Amino acid sequence: MIDDLGALTFAAIEQRSNAIAAGWRQRGLRPDEGVGILVRNHRGFFDAVFAAAKCGARIVLLNTDFAGPQLRDVIHREQVALLVHDDEYSDLLDDLALPHGRWRAWAETPGDDTLDALITTGTTSPPPAPGHTARIILLASGTTGTLKGTQRSQPRSLAPIGALLDRVPFRAGETTTLCPPMFHTLGFAHMMLAVALGSTLVVRRRFDAHQIVDSLERTRSTALVVVPIMLARILDDYAQRDDPPDLSALRIAYVAVSALGPGLAIRTLTTLGPVLYNMYGSTEVAYATIATPADLTAQPACVGTPVRGARVEILDDHGQPAPRGQTGRIFVGNPYQSQGYTGGGHKDIVDGLMASGDVGHFDTAGRLLIDGRDDDMIISGGENVFPREVEELLLTHPEFSEACCIGTPDDAYGQRIRAFVVRTEHSTLEADEIRAYVKLTLARYKVPRDIVFVDTLPRNSTGKILTRDLNL
Question: Where is the chain membrane-spanning (predicted)?
Answer without folding.
Answer: none
